[in-house]
Structure formats: C-alpha cells, structure tokens
Amino acid sequence: MRGEADSLAAIRRQTPTMATHQIGKPVQRKEGREKVTGSARYVDDISFPGMIFGVTVRSSVARGKILSIQFEAGIPWDEFAIVTAKDIPGKNCVALLIEDQPCLADQVVNHPEEAVVLLAHPDKYLLEEARRAVRIEIEPMPAVHTMAVSLSKEQVIWGDDNIFKAYQIEKGDVDSAWNAADFIVEGEYETGAQEQLYIEPQGMIAKANPAEGVTVWGSLQCPYYVHKALLRLFGLPKELVRVVQTETGGGFGGKEEYPSMIAGHAALLAWKSGKTVKMIYDRAEDMAATTKRHPSRTRHRTGVRRDGKLLAMEIDFALDGGAYETLSPVVLSRGTIHAAGPYACPNVRIRSRAVATNSPPHGAFRGFGAPQSVFALERHLDRVASAVGLSPEELRRRNFIHEGQTLSFGQVVQEKVDMNKLLDRALELSAYHEKQSRFQQENAHSVIKKGIGFAAFLHGAGFTGSGEEYLASEAMVEATRDGKIRVCAGSTEMGQGTNTVFAQIAADALGLDCERIEIMQPDTALVPNSGPTVASRTTMIVGKLVESAALAIKKSLMESGFVKEGYSGGEFAEACRQYIDTSGELRSLVKYQHPKDLHWDDGNYHGDAYGAYAWAVYVAEVSVDVRTAEIRVDDFVAVQEVGKVINPVLAAGQIEGGVAQGIGFALYENVVWQEGHMVNGQMTNYIMPTSMDVPPIRVFFEEIPYSRGPAGAKGIGELPLDGTAPAIANAVANATGADIRELPITPEKLIEKLDTVHA
Known about the structure:
This protein is α+β, with helices and mostly antiparallel strands and 759 residues long. Helices cover 31% and strands 24% of the residues. The chain has 3 domains: 5-37 and 471-591, Aldehyde oxidase/xanthine dehydrogenase, molybdopterin binding domain (Aldehyde Oxidoreductase, domain 4); 44-142 and 196-287, Alpha-Beta Complex (Aldehyde Oxidoreductase, domain 3), CATH 3.90.1170; 415-464 and 609-758, Aldehyde Oxidoreductase, domain 4. The termini are far apart.
C-alpha cells in the first residue's frame, strides 16, 4: 500500500498534460445550467403514477402519556392509510448514534410537535381536513424547558441525570495556576437556537413493499444516514433499501439527520398503503418540528499575567439538546475542542455537557457547536484585554498559537500557522486602527455610534479524532470507452459546489477538461459510502479519495502502455477504449487510510483532533442608533488560510454565505420558545437578514497547501459561522460600551445594556 501511494504521489507531481490545470480556476458550476433554466428537479417536482400524499399528526404538549387517539366523524377514514407505532415492521427508532428517538411516539410524548400518527390520501385538501380531525388525548407530565432546570435534576426526563454526553479536557495544572495570575476575569455567555431556513423545506417520496423493499427519493445531505435508519425501521437487509438524493435546495446541517425521520414516515405510509407516497413540509411545519442550532451557555474563568500572557483558562460549556440525543454528542465535541481557540495557554480545563429538555431535538447546523463556544471565547478575551489594560489586538498577539506549540486538547500544531500575519492583513484591509481612532472622536457628537471589532479563530476540517477512521469512507472513479470519467461518491451537492469541486479535482489529476467529468447522482444502489456531507470534510477528505482514484486510473493506462505522458484528450479516450476492450472495466475504488502519525485518545479526549485547520481573522464595522438600539453591519472583512483554493468563486461564495448566516445569528434570528413550542415559526416574525441588511463582505484568502488534501486543499464550509458573531458583538461593544454577552443582540436586549451603560 505504501509503495502504491508513493507511485500515485509521483504521478500527481507530474504536470498535467493538456495545459488543463483546473485547480484554482472559477470553472462553471456543474449543475448551474439546470438550476438557472429551471430544469433541475427537486423532490416536489417529481411525480409517480398513482402517487398519494402524506402528512403527520403531532403532539401539542411538551411531555405526557398518550391516553387515546380519536378519529372524528365527517371524514371517510376508510379511504386513508393510517399509521401508528404499532404498524412499524422493525424497531421503532430513528437509528443514529443511539436509538432513543422513536419514529412515532408510542405511549408517551417528549416534546411538542412529536410525530404520533401518519395519514395518506390522494386528495391533499381532504388530507389536511383529516389531519385536523385527529384528536390525540395526552395526560400532561412535568416538563423541563431550560438548561438550568435540566442540570439541577429537579425533574429527570432522560436517563439518570438528563445528560446526553459530557467531556472533560485537561492541560497542565489549572488549580495551581490561579495564584500566579495578576488578573482573574470571569464571564457567562449565552446563544439562542437558530433555524437553518434552507430555501427548500424537508421533502421525501417513498415506494415500499415487502417484496421489493424500500426506496426513497428526497432532499438530504447524507444518503447513508437515511439508509441506516430505514434498515432498522423496517428490519430489512441492505440490498432491499435504496436512498436517492434529489436536487437539494440547501441544507446547512438541517438535512443531515432529520431526513431519516421524514423518510421513515413516507416509507411507512407507502408500506401500509401499497402506493408511492410524497411528503413535503410547508414552512410552518418545517420550522416548528425540525432541528435547530443548539442553544448554549458558556462560563469562562481566565487567569492572566500583567503582561497579558494567559496562565489559565477554565471553561464550562453546556448545550441544550432538546428531547432526544440525535447528534448532540458530536456537536458538543466540536464546540468543546474549539472552546479555547487558537491560543497557547499552559493550563486549560474544559468541562462540557449536552442536556435534555422537552423541546424538539436540536441538531446539526453549520459550524456544529463551534460558533457557540467561539462567540463566548472571543467576546470574553476582549473583556480580559480591558481588565489587563491592553488592546484586544495586543492581547491576542501575545497568546497566539505557533507551529510546534500545543493546543488545549494536546495536539501539537504541525502546520505553518501565522495568526499574526492574518491579523495584520485583516486590520490593514479594514483600516481598523484609523477607523477606531476616528469613530471614537465622531461618537462623542452623534446618536449613531460607530464601532469596529474582530475575532480570531480556527476550525478543524473533517470528523473529530477517530471519526474519519471509523467512517472508512470510499469513493470510486470510472472511465468509459469514450474517455469520459464518472465520479461515484456519496457526497451530496446542495448548493455549496461539491459536484464542481470534484470535477475540478478529477480533471486536474487526469489532465483533462472538466467537461469530461460526470458526477454520479448520490444513490446508495450505485455509489459507495463516502460518509456524510458535513464537517468541512467533503473537499479535504472525499476530494482526496477522488484525486487518488483518478490518479490510479491514469497509472493503469500508463502502465498498460496505451498512453504516454503528454497525451491529448483524443489519445486519452482511445487509451480508455483499448484498455476496456482488452482488460475489462477501468475503475478505481479508494478507501480512506488514516494517517499513522495522527493519534487520538477518545477516553481522555486528547491528541490530534483534526488533520488540518483553517485559520481566520474577521473584522466587523457597525453602526448603532442608541435611540432605537438598531444595529447595522456596515463593512465586513474576512481573511482566512484554507490551504489551496480549488474554485475561488465557490470558495468566496461559501464565506459570503456563512457570514450572512453569522449576521443573522448575531443580530436577528431569535427563536422564541413557549412551553417547548417555537411560537414565531413563520418568516413574518422569525427575522433573518435580507440583502439590505448584509454589508459588502470582502473575502481574502491566504493559501498554504495542505499535503494531505487534494491539490493542497483544506475544509472551508463551516469556518465563516465561527467568527462572524463575535466580531460583530465586539464591534457593538466598541461602539457603545455595552457589555454584550448574549446572542442575538436584538434591540430589546441592547436597550437594557445601554441603560446599564448610561446609569
């Protein structure tokens, strides 16, 4: 294996042969034409003969015992397919990390909007009438609605202690470090839930029967997650379950785990009715019932010397997981690992917990726990700088991590990281020092206060610790007789550019044009399991598999003698024809091999958490009207080092979109809870930033190629969510003097802070 890897690396180092370098070019999106012309088919565009429609009847209370299910008169119930928990042929669970969440509630409900009954009928309008005519009688039980109550164990609603998962990281000797500190700064920080608000709501179509098994088509991020869940739900062998991704209108993590739920519901109705069933949520149901970003509470205690050097960091990080575990342990994991940031502190203790409450389960959202903990850290460090008498910039400079130093969880930094350079560039591009001085003078005479702030951060690419080794992802590249290349991977396109980037990677490795590369539709019957499309891993991890498989195709052709270095496109096509005619299929399946020099201790949560990190400094400029407490972001500079940029237009788009979502997280997107219900689950009163609320977002890349990434690339997708909100919060504090410790910074919350400043 080592010899073959060296051989492929040698081929990779050779210059592509047709002057078709594809890396670093803004090549046209693979699916762009279909989307622009309207020919792309989303799940609700698809229809089958005899297809009927499905809906879900849900719990109206947060926690209770199901006493009865009643079907009111006036509805021809004999025309309907009706499914309850007793109709499930396999295990009543949504299989993910564990199996605590039922597909349909049976005997008890644990959150509002929990699915209890499924209905299907050919007439969508009669179906809605029928949904309203189902009465679920529930005897309420005591519920838990806050993290504080959950942690107090006043009412235990999950396991023995309401805790889904807990981690502890220890570095150095925190307890002994406090005596040497000249300053000790404490603070508590909170963030709320955030709705993913993808353009296309959740949707699924299912065919299912005992003879042919289960096939679903849907809007989703992770085909093999859905596949695993359906296997368990129906008790079927792998070959009788098929999952096909349709064109997907955004995900942002919201279509990571939840599609397993709606796929299960559609398939159960299809199984019961014997017909193809389509289920599409409207916006209200999607917002009320599906997963959101975990609310968080972070407590910091930081010891620092008079010269600004950090001595000790003690961090307590808690997430509200909702009623079931879903992905809370892995969201908590990433948030925990990122909680101490890109800083060299000799003594660190991080305790973290994900706890149960009786709200709909929270789940994956772009950033995956890091935006919560990074906000707390970067806001807190501005307060530490103030206590010491240093500028926020100088405090960071004195503590930035450098190559060869150790992060809080024990990973020695092997990359050539230069946070000072990133900070210099970000401050220069934003005219930080000039504006800071000017704003201070202008604010004395204006009710519109201007401020500028920044955040420095890192984001690990790929699954944490041993996660990639456990996944053992695969990708395949296949050549056809006419010299076309098919890339077969389970990674999904949902607007972020997967198909285009894979095409560029394969084309560059083979010395071909991107037009020769075809990306196969993710379909568990046709493509290998490449792992989920999450965690900033698609380009770096799966893209590397695609590159390796493409290089193996080239190696086979060259060793066969059918082609020589310097081949043309026509010569490549002829070589493929000759090879296939004489030797059969020309394909390469590559499986992930974990680097032998990366070691992670799951028990002690210590070691090499990620193979590579993206590093960044973001600067926000804001205006605050102190009469109304309205905040506008006027300018935003995002500087990041992300390895080699595969496609500059797509990469900049990822940053711009992430910053826009981060602005919503910081200022606007406030989920209002009442007894576990989201009461503002409409786009009229759940406020997100519009184009008028988003400033010019100026994106700049530093490129230091990562040796284990395809053409040197690292991950990028989640990075911008981490630093946007703390940069804005620090800018608001700079403008007003308000001690910002909670997101979102709504006018109502800021007015209270301003009253404190002026008191």
